[in-house]
């Protein structure tokens, strides 16, 4: 199961790196984005719950590291006044995939000669 680290800057300027047993954090946080503290905690907690459930499904037990990360985030958030949490990085980054065919630009028209009998 791929694991990852995510780094944030708290409103007081402190930076921290956290562990996730799954790449699911990419679905909840975006690098360079600021989240209000409560929103960051909500998103991170939900993602870590999903990550722990994935570990449970694969290995038969919940991920205590994900639970520990949730506790670390809750403790750090409790020490913050208002403000935003800035997402500094998500490692490893997700590979960019080609967009689905329906989102790609149409091919250029061919330069084939006009059919016989066509008027120009």
What characterizes the major β-sheet? Answer: 4 strands, antiparallel
Helix fraction bin: 25-40%
Strand-and-helix sequence, N→C?
A: EEEHHE
User: Could you tell me the strand content as a percent range?
Assistant: 15-25%
Radius of gyration: 23 Å
**How does the overall form come out from the CA principal axes?**
globular
Number of DSSP E strands: 4
Structure overview:
- The chain is of the alpha+beta class and 120 residues long.
- It has helices at residues 37-59, 64-78; strands at 4-9, 15-20, 34-36, 84-91.
- A 4-stranded antiparallel beta sheet has the order 2-1-4-3.
- A hairpin with a 5-residue loop joins β1 and β2 (15-20).
- α1 (37-59) runs antiparallel to α2.
- The model has no long low-confidence stretch (mean pLDDT 86).
Topology of this protein?
Layout: E1 4-9, E2 15-20, E3 34-36, H1 37-59, H2 64-78, E4 84-91
Antiparallel strand pairs: 1-2, 1-4, 3-4
Helix pairs in contact: 1-2
């Amino acid at each position: 199961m791929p694991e990852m680290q995510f780094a944030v800057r708290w409103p007081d300027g402190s930076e921290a790196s956290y562990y996730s047993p799954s790449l699911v954090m990419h679905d909840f946080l975006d690098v360079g984005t600021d989240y209000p503290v409560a929103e960051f905690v909500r998103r991170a907690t939900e993602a870590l719950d999903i990550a722990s459930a994935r570990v449970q499904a694969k290995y038969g037990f919940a991920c205590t590291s994900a639970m520990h990360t949730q506790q670390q985030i809750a403790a750090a958030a409790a020490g913050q006044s208002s403000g935003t949490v800035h997402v500094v990085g998500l490692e490893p980054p997700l590979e960019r995939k080609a967009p689905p065919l329906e989102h790609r630009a149409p091919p250029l028209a061919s330069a084939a000669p006009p059919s016989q009998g066509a008027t120009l």
